Amino acid sequence: MFLRLLGLGLVLFLSAPSYSYAIVVSTTTFNTTIGPEGLDVYDNVGVIINGSHRGTGTYLGDGWVLTAAHVGAGDITLGGVSYSPIDATVGSAFTKQLDNPDDSILAGAEQKSDLLMYKIAGTPILSTVSIGTAPIISDVVTMVGAGWNVEDLNNDNIPDKHYFDSDFNEVIEGGHAFSGYLKGSGHAKRWGQNYVSMVDQLLIHDDIFDTVSFVTTFSDSGTSITNEAQAVPGDSGGAVVKSAGGGSGGVDV
Asked: pTM to 2 decimals?
């Protein structure tokens, strides 16, 4: 199983340091490119292109987008339309890097988190996203991001499973400590679900951004979640919905 840290405060997919053997969704993932019924925030999640950086952003309303600071303020595509930032300069009236909670700063975290809000030119016709409270252990969260596709070398809509020893060297099934899936080619917006396994964790991204975070753990067996998911590179800036039905009640992004 693999750990993936997801940012808290305003909850956000963050690209935590990890092996590339991260999971997209444990079962057949290809039907998850369409948002599930009741997941109101799905259409508010779009792809951000910022120079050579590609990530995900979540449209909150009134022209404001929330993403990861390491993704930056870039052009975001929502509903097939690309919207540009008014002023991508961090610290301007239109681009703000968010602070960590005061208690985490006292515990040694940097003041600035890996969370960024910026305003775009134009107004997408989308619902307003409300910010929910932080999840607790055992909460089910629904994640939406536009990261890497899962590997499917046979093109049969069945992800290719791999097995690894404790040092993450690939081995045959049976003598493995971990199992999972590799990233494939291309990106797509997907959704999936998982349980929150740890909270109030401090994520340090590239020794630059400290962010109070929570953890989800991918388990290839023994889970009651059909579309079990884990964030991968490119999902940074995506949304997390903390309601059992995936609806708008209690949205974290």
From this structure: 0.79
* Inter-residue contact 9 to 212 (CB < 8 Å): yes
Q: Is residue 134 within 8 Å of 214, Cβ to Cβ?
A: yes
Q: Rg of the Cα trace of the chain?
A: 17
Residue 207 phi/psi, 5° resolution? Answer: 60, 20
Strand blocks (E) in the chain: 3-7, 12-13, 45-50, 53-61, 64-67, 75-78, 81-83, 95-99, 112-119, 140-145, 148-150, 161-164, 170-171, 178-181, 183-187, 190-205, 209-217, 239-241, 251-252
pLDDT grade, residue 244 (50/70/90)? very low
30-39, 44-53, 136-145: least confident range: 30-39
Is there a contact between 219 and 57 (Cβ–Cβ < 8 Å)? no
Instruction: State whether residue 216 is helix, strand or coil.
Output: strand
Tokens of 251: 């949205």
pLDDT in tens, 190-203: 888 888 888 877 77
Among 99, 137, 107, 110, residue whose Cα is nearest residue 204: 110
Token digits of residue 87:
């002023």
71 in Cβ contact with 50 (< 8 Å): yes
Residue 77, token pair as written in the block: 């595509």
Pairing of the two strands 95-99 and 112-119: antiparallel
Residue 233 · residue 147 · CB < 8 Å: yes
Give residues with Cβ within 8 angstroms of 164, minimum separation 6. 21, 170, 171, 176, 177, 178, 179, 180
Check residue 157 and give its pLDDT: 74
Pick the more confident residue, 15 or 106: 106
Those residues whose C-beta lies under 8 Å from the C-beta of residue 41, and which sit 6 or more positions away, are: 58, 129, 144, 239, 241, 248, 251, 253
